Amino acid sequence: MLRNCKECGKVFSHPSQTLCAHCSKVRSEEFIKVKDYLQSYPNAPLGEVASATEVSIESIEEFIRQGRLTVIPKGANVTCAVCGKAVPYGRVCAACRGDLKGKEPIEQVRNDKESAKSRLHTMDTLRRRY
Ligand SMILES: [Zn+2]
Ligand SMILES: [Zn+2]
């Protein structure tokens, strides 16, 4: 199926991708940069992450919305995908996450070990703040 790349507008052929091969490669490189930076600086604010990695804030927010980042930069606008409430982490709030148990995509489950670690980290940060 022919479609236009969401990013550069180039016509390409793929059944499900919204980005052409070039842009999706750039996007995944961006994701790795952001993820690595947040692993080293878990408390970095969104603006700092964006300028340090040279990735646009829009792209970073998209990674957050997709639930791909286990560490969310400070000041990022993250809302629960189910109820719309602001969440400190992930795609859905704790309450909705409970409801979604057993329906999590495989990728999420695979990352669970890593997520648990950063979740602890987030809790630490929250505790320190209070
Ligand atoms: Zn493209
Ligand atoms: Zn919710």
Structure in words:
- This protein has 130 residues and is mainly alpha-helical.
- The chain has six helices and two strands; from the N terminus they run ββαααααα.
- A hairpin with a 6-residue loop joins strand 1 (2-4) and strand 2.
- Helix 1 (21-40) crosses helix 2 (46-53).
- The chain is globular, with a radius of gyration of 16 Å.
- The termini are far apart.
- The model has no long low-confidence stretch (mean pLDDT 82).
- The chain binds zinc ion (ZN) (2 copies).
- Residues 5, 7-8, 10, 19-20, 22-23 line the site of one zinc ion.
**What is the percent of helical residues?**
40-55%
Report the portion of residues in β strands: under 5%
> What molecules are bound to this protein?
zinc ion
Number of helices: 6
Q: Tally of extended strands? A: 2
- Average pLDDT confidence is 82
Low-confidence stretches: none
* Spatial separation of the terminal alpha carbons: 53 Å
Order of helices and strands: EEHHHHHH
The helix-and-strand class reads mainly alpha
Main beta sheet: 2 strands, antiparallel
Oligomeric status of the shown chains?
single chain
Q: Which word captures the global form?
A: globular
Gyration radius, rounded: 16 Å
Summarize, please.
This protein is 51% helix and 5% strand. It is mostly helical and 130 residues long.
